[in-house]
Amino acid sequence: MSQDQDIPSIGGGFHATHATGKADPHQPDSFAFDAESEAQIAKIVARYPEGKQASAVIPLLYLVQRQMRRQTGSAWVPRAGMDAVAARLGMPPIRVYEVATFYLMFNTRPIGTHHLQVCGTTPCWLRGSDEVLRACKDAGELKGYGDTSADGMFTLTEVECLGGCVNAPILQVDDDYYEDLDYESTVRLIEALKRGEKPQPGSVIGRQTSAPEGGPLTLLDVPGSQGTEKV
Ligand code: FES
Predict the structure, then answer these.
(1) In the 3-class helix/strand/coil scheme, how is 146-207 assigned residue by residue?
(2) 1-108: CATH homologous superfamily?
(3) Ligand 1 centroid to 182 CA: how many Å?
(4) Domain 114-203 CATH superfamily
(5) From-to residues of CATH 1.10.10.1590 in the chain
(6) Beta bridge pairs of residue 148
(7) CB distance 124 to ligand 1 below 6 Å
(8) Which of 90, 147, 161, 195 has its CA 20 to 30 A from that of 218?
(9) What pTM was computed for the model?
(10) Which atom of ligand 1 is nearest to the CA of 164?
(11) With 80 as the cut, is the pLDDT of residue 212 above it?
(12) Cβ of 153: how many Cβ atoms within 10 Å?
């Protein structure tokens, strides 16, 4: 496939051109790493042996996405950004496109200011992810998955297991996890985001990391010669 052809839409894949053949108006003509990204690139690329710089492709795509958020308010990876990564790492552009369109964490289209990612996999579903989704739709004024609110504030995406099942259900907002949610707490979270606040990520019921509700229940005693001592 020529890099001038459309790229198949895999995992939220992008199209450099519409089916009409017209240029995609969302795609910027160029992308250049800013000073903040350059400082990070120097550290990331140095982790890999000479000749293995292509291993840095995922971290560099993240840098593109974060720079786009800084510069445009929308965290996504345009094709010009993928080309910049390819040039920096000495890779054929198609190899970078393959990575960027495979992993769902890279947005290949512009998204809202906040990316609401609802985990719908079994543990979260059993613990009420349908209510989290309903709250996102109600409070975020979203029609469903794939939608961006009219004010550009939120984009809603369904994701598979986020690896936080122990505190299910989980809503990922941008790069942060909010845990132990229900309908009401999800609405409160979204209302806070609308006010420009950034609530503390983690368990919304005050759970200490993934400890049981109310505090730890195990490893409370240390056996000793004087009998059992409380830690
Ligand atoms: S099932 Fe939702 S975090 Fe694992």
Answers:
(1) CCECCCCCEEEEEECCCCCHHHCCCEEECCEEEECCCHHHHHHHHHHHHCCCCCCCEECCCC
(2) NADH-quinone oxidoreductase subunit E (1.10.10.1590)
(3) 14
(4) Glutaredoxin (3.40.30.10)
(5) 1-108
(6) 155
(7) yes
(8) 161
(9) 0.82
(10) 3
(11) yes
(12) 17
Place of tokens 């996999």: 121
165 lines ligand 1 (CB under 6 A): yes
| Residue limits of CATH 3.40.30.10 in the chain | 114-203
- Tens of pLDDT along 76-132? 999 999 999 999 999 999 999 999 999 989 999 999 999 999 999 999 999 999 999
Q: Report helix, strand or coil for 118.
A: strand
Distances (CA, A) of 114 to 101, 155, 161, 169, 214: 20, 6, 20, 19, 31
Q: Cβ(181) to ligand 1 under 6 A?
A: no
Task: Please give the Cα distance from 182 to 213 (Å, whole number).
Answer: 15
